Amino acid sequence: MQPLLLLMAFLLAPKAQAVKIIGGHEVKPHSRPYMAFLRIRISDRKRCGGFLVREDFVLTAAHCWGRSITVILGAHNIKKRERTQQVIPVKTAIRHPNYHPKVNDIMLLQLQRKATLTAAVSLLRLPRRGEQVKPGMVCRVAGWGRLDLNTSTATLHEVELEIQEDKQCVSCYRRRYNRATEICVGDPGKSQSTFKARDIRDRVLWTLEPMNKSPGLLFKIVRGLCLNTRNTSSSDLGRPLGKMQPLLLLLVFLLPPSRLLGEIIGGQEARPHSRPYMAFLVIQSPGRVSTCGGFLVREDFVMTAAHCWGRTINVILGAHNIRRQERTQQRLSVLRAIRHPGYSEQRLLNDIMLLQLENRARRNRFVRPVALPQSQIRLSPGSLCTVAGWGLVSQHRRTDTLQDVQLRVQRDQECSRRFEPFNGQTQICVGNRREQKSAFLGDSGGPMVCNNVAQGIVSYGSNNGTPPGVFTRVSSFLSWINRTMRRFTQQGNQTETPYD
Predict the structure, then answer these.
(1) Is this structure's pTM higher than 0.70?
(2) What per-residue confidence (pLDDT) applies to 64?
(3) Which of residues 307 and 437 earns the better pLDDT score?
(4) Residue ranges making up the domain that contains 136
(5) Beta strands 138-143 and 247-249, pairing class
(6) Buried b (16+ CB within 10 A) or exposed e, 316-348
(7) Together in a domain, 221 and 271
(8) 235 assigned to some structural domain
(9) pLDDT for res 345
(10) Residues 82, 199: one domain?
(11) Catalytic pick from 30, 63, 157, 307?
(12) What's the pLDDT score for residue 191?
């Protein structure tokens, strides 16, 4: 008997986000017959994991969506054409109707034809209501991810991880961790984990339970659940390793769309209040609180990245240490979040958003708008600019104080050969690849300021934080910015819908 634990959708996107198995080992070939490997086409290619829940349905993460998806079942080595493999195109990709980056990250893939059940291809049972995992239980995580930053693997690997008390993740993620919908996984004292290159500390997973078995089924997010692929009694579920066969843990990682930036690497603490245009955003969505950067462009408007959208957004201006209630701070609610109409969540194109504040900011020496470009004249490669934010300063260390770093604009080719969706007309390639300086996790939406003008917005970059990164080119959107601010200023508070 081998009890299993739901649920997995590993993102494995080259040049973007990669999930890795650290301290693990190669599994016995075809011992995890429900595993699915997904090849996804958007404008570029990416790969994800998933698992077979019915002969015609695979379950995966919503951020693994693409225009064309092909599922490979019965695989051990994904670089070989094994006789056990079944390659089936996806007919319909059904994302959760309330999917938003970091929230309701689940998707059903309806296959064009039913899979043939064999010794190498079988179903993973979904959990019953009430089944739970408990702290101390040892489980396994499997995937085709890298083994470290420099070592790839084509064969399925797994690692044993221990369920932790909620407080372990609460202390790491503060307001981000949700006890009701997430599980804390991985002993901080051991060098074993799966991780995204952008946040090595991430041990959070979601488990989900279907509300019915219809093709268009919705999902209820519940706590972690143990389940079984064979007819075993419920008393066998949830025992610790050593008294029974190890459990298999299947993960959904949270930080979707793949390439989001946010960490200031190679910089230093900014002089307090030397960047009075900086805004810190607290974003609330169902079951989730996240943060972004932004910048004041008028007393009643803040600019940020479109992927920083949420149901409710609050802005803090005049801050240096965002964990303190500084007398210089102004805390304002957002009346409207207006994303660019051409924003692409999958490709992160047109990644720009205006936030109209409920009340105008009080201009003083701690709070002051930054200038926007006056024309669409392009920055020359080699231009030196400054990026600031409250993101991580390394993969292991947070900062509460504003950090900044100087970065140079690069030729478009530096990013176009690294990021296939890169568009030099609306994006800027920033950061010398020979220098260990960049923006990475935590500063999405922050400004890139060149000669006191906000020329760029932090958008996305590589999976390990190495430069260059991609910034939204503000000058390409001047007409939309001016038209939008003029329109909503004239409308005042008459619009009933505060968010786009």
Answers:
(1) no
(2) 86
(3) 307
(4) 3-226+240-249
(5) parallel
(6) bbbbbebeeeeeebbebebbbbbbbeebebbbb
(7) no
(8) no
(9) 86
(10) yes
(11) 307
(12) 53
* The one catalytic residue among 444, 462, 475, 476: 444
Regarding whether 272 and 215 lie in a shared domain, the answer is: no
Which of 217, 249, 281 finishes a domain?
Answer: 249
Residue type at 405 in one-letter notation: V
Measure the CA–CA gap between 346 and 43, rounded to whole angstroms: 9
d(CA 113, CA 85): 15
- Render pLDDT for 334-369 as a digit per residue (tens, 0 to 9): 999 999 999 998 888 999 999 999 999 999 999 999
Residue 157 among the catalytic residues: no
Average pLDDT over residues 159-180: 71
Residues 244 and 286 grouped into a single domain: no
The question of whether 307 is a catalytic residue gets the answer yes
Q: Say if residues 442 and 127 touch (Cβ distance below 8 Å).
A: no
- Is residue 67 domain-shared with residue 206, that is, in the same domain? yes
Mean pLDDT value across residues 299-310: 96
Six token digits for residue 93: 């990709």
Token representation of residue 143 = 């995937």
Among 210-214, 348-352, 391-395, the range with the most confident prediction by mean pLDDT is 348-352
- Residue 446: which of 198, 261, 284 has the closest Cα? 261
Query: Among this protein's residues, is 44 annotated catalytic?
Result: no
Residues 10 and 42 occupy one common structural domain? yes
Tokens of 305: 């990245």
Which pLDDT belongs to residue 411?
96
Structure tokens at 200: 């090595």
Least confident interval from 155-169, 220-234, 440-454, 472-486: 220-234
Catalytic residue among 202, 351, 404, 443: 351
Handedness of CA 187, 190, 196, 201 (dihedral sign): positive
38's CB contacts (< 8 A; 6+ apart) are 47, 48, 49, 50, 58, 60, 64, 69, 70, 71, 72, 109
Query: So what's the pLDDT on residue 441?
Result: 57
Average pLDDT, the chain: 76
